[in-house]
Amino acid sequence: xxxxxxxxxxxxxxxxxxxxxxxxxxxxxxxxxxxxxxxxxxxxxxxxxxxxxxxxxxxxxxxxxxxxxxxxxxxxxxxxxxxxxxxxxxxxxxxxxxxxxxxxxxxxxx
Length: 110
What we know:
This protein has a single domain, classed as Rieske Iron-sulfur Protein (3-layer Sandwich). Helices cover about 0% and strands about 50% of the residues. The protein contains no helices and ten strands. A six-stranded antiparallel sheet has the order 1-10-9-4-3-2, with no helix packed on it. The protein has a four-stranded antiparallel sheet with strand order 5-6-7-8, with no helix packed on it. A hairpin with a 2-residue loop joins β9 and β10.
């Protein structure tokens, strides 16, 4: 596993996901109300559409695809909760590190 620097911690909020691209993979980062940072695939497993503008629920860590309304439970490994998706989305481990220029979020990837 390798850690990749994704962004400054201050870029991530509970309001909407923040998109980064690492090794040609689009990843969304979002924060839940308990201040935990989550990283997950930006593409819906149903129709390979971007969830960047999807509805993020910071109370429970659910993301709703803006195209077909599939819902995924990010804290539970990206499990699908509502069709039309029947496959989970990939989630990634996150590490926050303090560096000279601020707090940065790193994503662990294969």
